[in-house]
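[stage:ingest] chain + small molecule (nicotinamide-adenine-dinucleotide)
[stage:ingest] validated
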Amino acid sequence: MRVIVTGGAGFIGSALVRYLVRDRGWEVLNVDKLTYAANLQSLSSLSGRSNYRFMQADIGDHVAMRHAFSDFQPDGVMHLAAESHVDRSISSSAEFIKTNVLGTHVLLEAARRYWSELPVTRGDTFRFLHVSTDEVFGTLDEGDFFTETTAYDPRSPYSASKASSDHLVSAWRETYGLPTLITNCSNNYGPYHFPEKLIPLILLNALEKKPLPVYGDGRQVRDWLYVEDHVKALTTVLERGRIGETYNVGGRAPTENITVVERICDLLDARVPNEVPRRNLIRFVTDRPGHDRRYAIDPTKIETELGWRAEKTFDTGITATVDWYLNNDWWWRPLRENVYSGTRLGLLADPAPAKTELAENSV
Ligand code: NAD
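[stage:predict] done
[stage:export] tokens:
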């Protein structure tokens, strides 16, 4: 297989590229603009691999996207490039609309043009997989789960931009026949996660004995998915998913934020003992505007139809994640020192990132 992966220098994209290049032996062209969220160090283990190529480009650049397709001649596209941090979308939404909506449109048009000129045999097997989020469905009541037929109800600038891109992808399938698939997944975590998001931020703050800010009452529920399970799900959907379908991907691990934070504290206390328990560092801070209360995925469709199932429980996944961060400070230390140190983002009263309050999460 030859695939274009967009956003392959980000958190999930880099896990996907490592998996496809190393474990599956696929030919991969990684198309990434290299925003603040990108890190080519996450792909350093691929240096010298002849089946991996990188192209620095914006998915909103028509000419560059056309060249990417015509030069690389892919069998499929796995589209992950996006602005992905909810808090940043609250402070400044423009980039979210530009990349997530307009960029997806440019990519769809480049893919359509390329696909329409393929010989029939290759055109029949071409696939465009769009990677989206469960946040497009809005918030859930206790005991409810998102399925593939849940109505869209996006409530943040980020989720609204992702919902828009999902609709564009579906429209390109219905109107032009482009062979598309969509996945909507829950919150990912694992190695190489940029430290503005809940789990790596809390982990690194706790390691450095800094305050651990928790939004609101900390009882918001997120359904955690280990990133290496997720990339196998994406590959399964690209290979065996039914054209035009959407698949919800989740790890069957709905967990309250406060429980996640406490678990990280306890794991660190066991590995790097501190004179006082790290739970004492927890501080409840002003909630995020429009913070959705509960997300939980019902992954029955992908499990029964395609035979994929998350291998990691939340407990085994979070343990592996804590151990990875403890053993890989070469990766995260430069980011903490030079790119993002943990200032709070996304407060309504402050359109520019605030310097005073520490961020908790992006979930
Ligand atoms: P990320 O922010 O870590 O990485 C995004 C990557 O996209 C970066 O490498 C960035 O440089 C690149 N990018 C941004 N704008 C671009 C542009 N205009 N052109 C080319 N490249 C561009 O994101 P992630 O967490 O890896 O998420 C990947 C995808 O999965 C996104 O589409 C996101 O919406 C979706 N998703 C993520 C989660 C999660 O928990 N992280 C959950 C559900 C869905």
